[in-house]
Amino acid sequence: MKQAVIYTRFSPRPDADTSKSCEQQEGRCIAYCKKMGHEIWEYFPDKNVSGKTLCRPALKAMLESLKPGMVVVVDTGDRLARDMLVELTIIHQIERAGCTIEYADGSPSRTTPESRLFRGILAAFAQYERERYAARTKAGLKKKRERGEWQGKPPIGWQYDKASKRLVENPLEQAAIIFIKQEAKLGKNSNEIAEFINAHYSSKIRGKPWSARTIRKILAQS
Questions:
Q1: Residue 153: its pLDDT value, please?
Q2: What does the alpha-carbon distance between residue 205 and residue 114 come to, in Å, rounded to a whole number?
Q3: What b-and-e string marks burial along 86-104, b requiring 16 or more CB atoms within 10 Å of the CB?
Q4: How far apart are CA 12 and CA 23, in angstroms?
Q5: pTM given for the model
Q6: Domain map of the chain by residue range?
Q7: Does residue 32 come out as left (phi exceeding 0), alpha (psi in the -120 to 50 range) or beta?
Q8: What is d(CA 35, CA 93) in angstroms, rounded to the nearest whole number?
Q9: Distance from the CA of 88 to the CA of which of 23, 108, 144, 208 falls in 20 to 30 A?
């Protein structure tokens, strides 16, 4: 019976698949360990962490906990990493510790030259697709700039108009900006101005109360 550590990773984003949450991954990994007869030693979940970086708290703790003969169980390859170099680095560290890695979805591990080649090819194709997607996104943003369309988050005092695809003034925020500048000229600091606006006006900044930090930002830009 091998001792197993389970590593999971999830990075929430608008298009994220909730079936890949750490809890869902853990359940599949537990079922896999029972099937293979592995004794689960510890769990290492990384939440809200990109698969393109090695700087992950749970990953670091997992690698430091490894003892020769252990097996690292991961749900799928992309939960371990989303970058070929990062993936190869992690696997190298696991193997250097005298351990192996297995995938709950049945993907081949790197225990033979053939499986190493297969995983390398898949990782290379995955990275190629990510780079193509990034290139298409960059080209699309460039075309928007050339058409004069706004990109990104509107600055304070402005809002995005879907019809024209351009910025238009936000009347409530513009009025607040004028008030903030007037109060600052009277000698009030950002904390005092924020407290007054939140106490006497119903208008908010992007749905949230006005903060001293936001007011300092406005004053710095004036």
A1: 79
A2: 57
A3: bbbebbebbeebebbbbbb
A4: 13
A5: 0.53
A6: 3-128, 158-221
A7: alpha
A8: 26
A9: 23
